[in-house]
């Protein structure tokens, strides 16, 4: 089942970004060009962070960076909207970061990630004028992870049955997001 989880994560991450967070940011009245620039800057920042982590760091440091960036995304999402934070936690928790993700050695890094997420949440807990940009940055992270890391995993050759299961999980992920995104359904 773990090999199929990227399908669920892709559905949750793409749905959270495209059906929930980005529409809220663009409906906020913030400058749309500024939000698009923030989205582009966020995508480039995640690309550069990943490049730096893989080229300059040890495997353990790269894993710590990965967990910390996941936690910051979750913290920012919770700060913007509690239900978006829940979706982010589900999506990012459902994708395995590596084969070592279940090993004991990653526990200190997961603790670092939790601390970074809490710090981000406490820092961003009040609604601010720049909250639409926080939503867009979180969306950039969701899109980057889904499209650069997880979609390639579900594009690997698989049996018809596994492909159908992945597509169903992707649809379930998007349906969960729609439940939160459509006004009145999650309350």
> Major sheet, described briefly?
none
How many helical elements?
A: 7
Number of domain modules: 1
Question: Number of DSSP strands?
Answer: 0
What structural class do you assign from the helix and strand content?
Answer: mainly alpha
Shape: globular
Distance between the termini: 31 Å
The level of helicity is over 70%
Question: Strand-and-helix sequence, N→C?
Answer: HHHHHHH
What is the gist of this entry?
Keywords: Membrane, Transmembrane, Transmembrane helix. This protein is 78% helix and 0% strand. By secondary structure, it is an all-alpha fold.
Architecture blueprint of SSEs:
Blueprint: H1 5-26, H2 32-56, H3 59-80, H4 82-94, H5 107-123, H6 131-154, H7 160-181
How would you characterize this protein structure?
It comes from Massilia psychrophila. Keywords: Membrane, Transmembrane, Transmembrane helix. The chain crosses the membrane at residues 33-50, 130-151, 163-182. This protein has one domain (2-181). Helices cover 78% and strands 0% of the residues. It is built from seven helices and no strands. Helix 2 (32-56) runs antiparallel to helix 3 and helix 4 (82-94) packs antiparallel against helix 7 (160-181). Mean pLDDT is 76; it is low at 97-111.
């Amino acid at each position: 089942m773990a090999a199929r989880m990227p399908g669920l994560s892709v559905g949750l991450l793409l749905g959270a970004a495209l059906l929930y967070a980005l529409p809220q940011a663009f409906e906020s009245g913030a400058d749309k060009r500024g939000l698009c620039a923030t989205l582009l800057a966020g995508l480039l920042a995640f690309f550069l962070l990943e490049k730096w982590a893989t080229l300059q760091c040890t495997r353990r440091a790269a894993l710590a960076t990965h967990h910390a960036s996941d936690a910051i995304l979750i913290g920012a999402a919770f700060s913007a909207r509690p239900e978006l934070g829940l979706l982010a936690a589900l999506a990012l928790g459902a994708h395995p970061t590596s084969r070592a993700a279940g090993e004991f050695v990653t526990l200190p890094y997961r603790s670092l990630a939790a601390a970074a997420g809490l710090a981000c949440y406490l820092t961003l807990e009040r609604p601010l004028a720049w909250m639409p940009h926080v939503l867009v940055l979180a969306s950039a992270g969701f899109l980057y992870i889904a499209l650069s890391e997880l979609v390639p995993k579900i594009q690997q050759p698989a049996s018809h049955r596994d492909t159908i299961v992945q597509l169903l999980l992707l649809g379930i992920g998007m349906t969960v997001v729609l439940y939160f995104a459509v006004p009145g359904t999650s309350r």
